[in-house]
Design a protein that fits this description.
about 600 residues; two-stranded antiparallel sheet; flavin adenine dinucleotide binding; zinc
C-alpha cells in the first residue's frame, strides 16, 4: 500500500488482506485453510462472543432546531452515542453472594441475622460459585493474604481443605505499615459531608469578598443571576421561593456512564511503569465530591507508584469549586489540583462547566482565585483552543489566567466543535506557549510516537500531555524517553494486559464482581489498543493517530487478534486472562471514535 489513500495507514503489501479473509482467520483460531475444510461439516456452536454484533456506528447528535424541521416530528432520536448502550452492573453477574461476615471470618455473627440477603451456608455457596479462573491468586502472592477469601475466583490458591482462608505470615509481616493506595473516603467524612456539617471556613471567607460587602450568599447570587441574564427583574425575584444560592448541584446531573473509563488507577500504574512522569486522575464533579459519593471519591485514589500525582475537578460556580478545593486540600494527598475547563460533553458545557468556563471569564476568574486562596498545592488549568471551530480564544485567556494565579496551563490543540475530527493545531499551541511564559504550558493532541513528541518539543511548550496516544500504546512513554520505535511483540502486549488485570483485581477485587469490573475496563481499553499497528508492518513510520488501520494479517495469530475491532475478539482476549465470560454477559464499547473522518 502506498499510503496515498487519505486517512489510511500505509502497511506493507504482504500483510494486507480483506475483511472476509481477516475474520476467517480469526474464526479458525489461527488454523490454516486445510484445517478449516476438515471442520466444515461440523456445525459450530455459537459462543457468547460470536453472538455479539459489531458495534453500531456512532449516533451523531441532532440539533433540536434541525430536528423540528424533519418529517418525523413525533419520533425523538436519542442524543449521544451511549444512550442505547447496554449497562450491565458487575453485581448482576453474582446474584447469590456470600455474606461479608463469613468472607472476613468475623468472630461475631451477621448483625442482620435472618434478614440478611446474602448466603450464610458455605456449602450452598460453593455449589453455586462459578469455577475458579486460575491456580494462582495475585493478591495472595503479593500481600500474603487475600481478603476475598472463599469468594475469590482464584480461591484454590489460598483455601484449605476445611474451607479456611490461608495466609503467608512472612509476606503479611513484610507488608505491614505499607499503604499502596491513598486518598480513600472514610465513613466518618462521608457521613459529615452528607449531613453538611463539614466546615469550609476559608471558602466562606473568600465568598464574602466575591459578594462585595459581606452580602448573604443567597442575596448575592440572586443579584449575580440578575446581572448575567439581564431578564429577571427584582419584582420577579421576590415572587420566587428559593432555598439559597444556585450551585452545581442544582443544575448538573451527570451520569456515571458519561465519563471516561480508561484513565483509571490500574492503567496509570501501567503508564508509570513505562515511564510517565506525571499522572492525573479522571475528571471528578465537585458537587459529587462535596456530597460524599463513593464512586466520585474513587477517582481521587493514588497509588504509591505515582510520585507526582494530581486530581482533576470540574464545576461551574466559585462557591462549590472553592469548597471542593478546600476539602481536597485538607483531606487527601495530591501534588496539584487541575481544573478541567476543556470538557466538551454537552451535559457539562450547557450548564457552564468544562469548555463553557472559557466563555464565562468572570466566573472563571472567581473560581481560579477562590481555589488558589484555599490550596497549599499548585493549581493548574486545562483548556482547549476555543469553543467554535474557527474562533480561537485561548490566546486571549492565557494572559488573564497568568494574572489570576494559575501555576500551569495544559492546552489541547482543538476546539470543542472539532472534537477529534481534525488534527491538533501545534502552531497555535506554540503561539500560546509564548504568551504563557514564564508559566509552563503543556501541549496536548495527536502524540502517538516519539517523532510526534520530538516535533512537539520543537515548539516552546514545557512538556506534553498524552491521552488517546497512551491508550493506544502505553509504551509510547518508553519510546519517548529512549527516542526509538519499539516493535513490541504480541506476547509482550499480552503481558501488559495481564499486568493490567492483576492491578485491576488488586484495585477492584478478585471476587466475581471485581473480576467482571476488571474485564469491563479491560475491554474499554482494548477498544483503543486495537488501533495500534505494529512497527514492523508499517510501510511508513511512524503511525499517525488519525490514520485508519486497514485490514491486515499480523505476524502471528495473537497479533491479528489484537488488531480486530470486533467486540467478540476483544472478549476472546479477556478470556485468555480472566476466564470465560458469564452466560448473561453483554458489552458494547463506549468509545466509537470519529477521529478518522
Amino acid at each position: 500500500m502506498n499510503g496515498t489513500d487519505k486517512g489510511r495507514a500505509a502497511i506493507k503489501t504482504q500483510f494486507l488482506t480483506t475483511k472476509e479473509k481477516f475474520h476467517e482467520l480469526l474464526d479458525s483460531g489461527g488454523k490454516g485453510p486445510n484445517d478449516d475444510k476438515a471442520s466444515d461439516d461440523a456445525a459450530p456452536k455459537e459462543t457468547a462472543e460470536d453472538s455479539l454484533e459489531e458495534p453500531q456506528e456512532k449516533k451523531f447528535k441532532v440539533d433540536p432546531d434541525e430536528q423540528e424541521r424533519t418529517e418525523k416530528r413525533n419520533s425523538k432520536r436519542m442524543r449521544g452515542q451511549n444512550k442505547s448502550r447496554p449497562h450491565m452492573k458487575p453485581t448482576s453477574y453474582d446474584n447469590r453472594r456470600l455474606c461479608p461476615s463469613i468472607i472476613q471470618e468475623r468472630e461475631t455473627k451477621c448483625v442482620y441475622g435472618d434478614k440478611c440477603k446474602f448466603i450464610h451456608d458455605v456449602a450452598e455457596y460453593m455449589a453455586l460459585k462459578p469455577a475458579d479462573v486460575g491456580e494462582h491468586c495475585y493478591l495472595y502472592d503479593t500481600f500474603g493474604k487475600c481478603h476475598y477469601g472463599l469468594s475469590c475466583r482464584f480461591a484454590r490458591a489460598h483455601i484449605s481443605a476445611d474451607l479456611k482462608n490461608l495466609a503467608n505470615e512472612e509476606r503479611v509481616k513484610a507488608m505491614e505499615g505499607r499503604t499502596p493506595v491513598r486518598n480513600s473516603l472514610d465513613k466518618d467524612l462521608q457521613w459529615r459531608l452528607r449531613k453538611k456539617v463539614v466546615p469550609f471556613t476559608a471558602s466562606d471567607a473568600y465568598m464574602k469578598t466575591v459578594f462585595k460587602g459581606g452580602h448573604k450568599a443567597g442575596e448575592g447570587w440572586k443579584k449575580a443571576v440578575t446581572a448575567e441574564n439581564g431578564k429577571v427583574s427584582q419584582e420577579n425575584l421576590a415572587l420566587v421561593k428559593t432555598i439559597g444560592p444556585l450551585t452545581d448541584a442544582d443544575v448538573i446531573k451527570l451520569r456515571q456512564c458519561e465519563k471516561k473509563q480508561c484513565g483509571n488507577l490500574p492503567f496509570r500504574r501501567i503508564c508509570k511503569r513505562f515511564g510517565a512522569d506525571i499522572t492525573c486522575g479522571e475528571m471528578a464533579m465537585c458537587t459529587n465530591l462535596l456530597q460524599g459519593q463513593s464512586s466520585e471519591w474513587a477517582l481521587l485514589k493514588r497509588h504509591e507508584s505515582e510520585d507526582l500525582f494530581g486530581v482533576q475537578v470540574e464545576g461551574c460556580f466559585p462557591d462549590t469549586m472553592t469548597r471542593c478545593a478546600e476539602l481536597l486540600n485538607n483531606k487527601i494527598d495530591v501534588d496539584f489540583v487541575d481544573i478541567n475547563s476543556g470538557c466538551p460533553i454537552d451535559l457539562v458545557y450547557k450548564k457552564g462547566g468544562g469548555c463553557g468556563l472559557m466563555t464565562r471569564t468572570n466566573k472563571f476568574e472567581q473560581i481560579i482565585r477562590g481555589m488558589n486562596s484555599v490550596l497549599d498545592v499548585p493549581l493548574t488549568v486545562k483548556i482547549r483552543t476555543g469553543v467554535q471551530e474557527k474562533a480561537n480564544i485561548a490566546h486571549k485567556l492565557i494572559p488573564e489566567m497568568k494574572k489570576w494565579g494559575v501555576s500551569m496551563i495544559t492546552l489541547h490543540g482543538r476546539s470543542r466543535e472539532q472534537r477529534y475530527t481534525k488534527s491538533a493545531d501545534w502552531d497555535y499551541i506554540n503561539t500560546c506557549s509564548q504568551l504563557a511564559s514564564p508559566i509552563p504550558l503543556f501541549g496536548n493532541g495527536d502524540i502517538l510516537s516519539y517523532y510526534d513528541a520530538m516535533k512537539a518539543r520543537e515548539t516552546e511548550v514545557s512538556g506534553v500531555m498524552l491521552a488517546r496516544g497512551a491508550l493506544i500504546k502505553p509504551w509510547v512513554f518508553t519510546e519517548i524517553k529512549e527516542r526509538r520505535d519499539w516493535d513490541i511483540s504480541s506476547s509482550e502486549r499480552l503481558d501488559v494486559l495481564r499486568d493490567f488485570t492483576h492491578y485491576g483485581l488488586e484495585h477492584w477485587g478478585s471476587d466475581t464482581q471485581g473480576l467482571e469490573k476488571t474485564r469491563n475496563f479491560l475491554l474499554e481499553w482494548l477498544s483503543f489498543m486495537c488501533r495500534y499497528i505494529p512497527v514492523g508492518l508499517l510501510e511508513q513510520v511512524p503511525q499517525r493517530i488519525n490514520e485508519r488501520p486497514p485490514y491486515y494479517m499480523g505476524r502471528d495469530y495473537l497479533e491479528s487478534l489484537m488488531a480486530s475491532q470486533h467486540v467478540g475478539d476483544w472478549i476472546k482476549i479477556s478470556e485468555m486472562l480472566l476466564g470465560p465470560v458469564p452466560k448473561n454477559f453483554n458489552f458494547l464499547p463506549k468509545h466509537k471514535a470519529n477521529a478518522y473522518k
